[in-house]
Amino acid sequence: MSDLKVVAEPGRQDVLITRTFDAPRERVWRAITDPELVGRWFGLDATTTEVDPTEVRTGTPWRISEKAPDGAVYAFRGVHHDVREPERLVRTFEFEGMPGHVSLETLTLTEVDGRTRYEAVALYQSVEDRDGMLASGMESGMEQSMDKLEEVLRSLR
User: Fold this and answer.
1) Which residue numbers in the chain have pLDDT < 50?
2) CATH 3.30.530.20 fits 5-155, yes or no
């Protein structure tokens, strides 16, 4: 059973996302940075995900697009700002359908007894931006993605 938590306190500009995976940190890092593996777990269950190949290092851009069954494409992009393999990744995150609403995401992976705690803090430019992201279905999308990430991690054993 998933222990996913999405915490968004009223009036704040941030969202805290946590989940524990039954996998060592290096395996989780690989799954969240290898474009082929990211394409298998990122996004909604009903979409097909395409990841632009990129090297995950400080200063490199990234882009991911999801294609819905009706043909609509939803793309996200940003820049890696701080990469410390396998423990920390800081990047910007922007939905191309609403340009200018950029968040800063800090992901930390902590391993304890062979399991990895995934903790992401997304900081938005305003409370309104944060609330808009939540209203768009962010929590449901995170749940679908994190469940698929767990499946990918199991397949890498």
Assistant:
1) none
2) yes
